[in-house]
Amino acid sequence: MSTNNKRNVDMDTVDRKLLIELLRDARTSLRRLSEEMNVSPATLHNRLTRLVQEGIVRGFTALVDYTKLGYSLSAVIMAKVDGKHLTEFEREIASSDNVVAVYDVVGEYDVVIISKFKNVEDLDAFLKQLLKNPKIERTYTSIVLNVVKEDPRIKI
Amino acid sequence: MSTNNKRNVDMDTVDRKLLIELLRDARTSLRRLSEEMNVSPATLHNRLTRLVQEGIVRGFTALVDYTKLGYSLSAVIMAKVDGKHLTEFEREIASSDNVVAVYDVVGEYDVVIISKFKNVEDLDAFLKQLLKNPKIERTYTSIVLNVVKEDPRIKI
DNA sequence: AGTGAAAAGCACTCGTT
DNA sequence: AACGAGTGCTTTTCACT
């Protein structure tokens, strides 16, 4: 009954180096990279197309300092949810504009939600909306005082 | 004694639209965008340079499906840390290759850590290393069974 | 699957307003 | 601060291997 159809993929040195460089700077030019790597630009273009098609690369984005845009408030919310409705609840919560991450976890709680807000009112409204959901048995909210690190990149 | 020198910045419609488009696709061309927006490519180029200089844009990256690269294990770790050493501890933990996020929170715990691993052994080693740190009074680890959502982009 | 070559597209700079 | 135009890069395609 798992819906997880992900599989690990063969990646050679070229794919790996390409991925590392795009993680470092998504706007870098394939041409310059191709010179460094002693392959043709066309090859890198093909490799990148394949990485995107296979879903290894989900897209390219700008990393933004949200505090400078007024999103000064983050929250880590843990919730215990009625098992029958967990998947539905997660889908619901993941579609929210304020939510950057949703993790299905094991332990005292079932879901961990990372969310961002412009002010206390917005966070309050989000939490109130959440709490009136009858699928939720219990929540624990940690208000984030300081985002020490937030970077989707890990060393691959 | 705050080290938070972040400030909110004036962003007009052009900045905002540029940012939204780069969040959507960081490899998009400024020229095409400039046509959509009825400004010159040179203006967009200047705007983007300014956004980067001001630190609103921290960089550009590829969004990667880490499960497809073998990082099938994530963990949400909460820690209660001796107050005197909190900042030092956070700096330490944030520099780890396996850590994508570190949040300074208020409540029962002081720090929330989001981390990724290839296997149970690596997670185990990370946790053991963490637990032998005398600054830590208490931890709570939630093993992530499923990453429902993980996307640094919020609607701005 | 990788390549070179060519055409189309693009970034970046600078002088002008 | 925004622009237009020019120069040199870059992507993308495609026929060939």
From TrEMBL, chains A, B:
Pathway: Amino-acid biosynthesis. GO terms for molecular function: sequence-specific DNA binding. GO terms for cellular component: cytosol. Residues 11-72 form the HTH asnC-type domain. GO terms for biological process: response to amino acid. InterPro entries: AsnC-type_HTH_dom, Dimeric_a/b-barrel, Tscrpt_reg_AsnC-like, Tscrpt_reg_AsnC/Lrp_C, WH-like_DNA-bd_sf, WH_DNA-bd_sf. Keywords: DNA-binding, Transcription, Transcription regulation. Pfam families: AsnC_trans_reg, HTH_24. The keyword Membrane does not apply. This is AsnC family transcriptional regulator. It comes from Acidianus manzaensis.
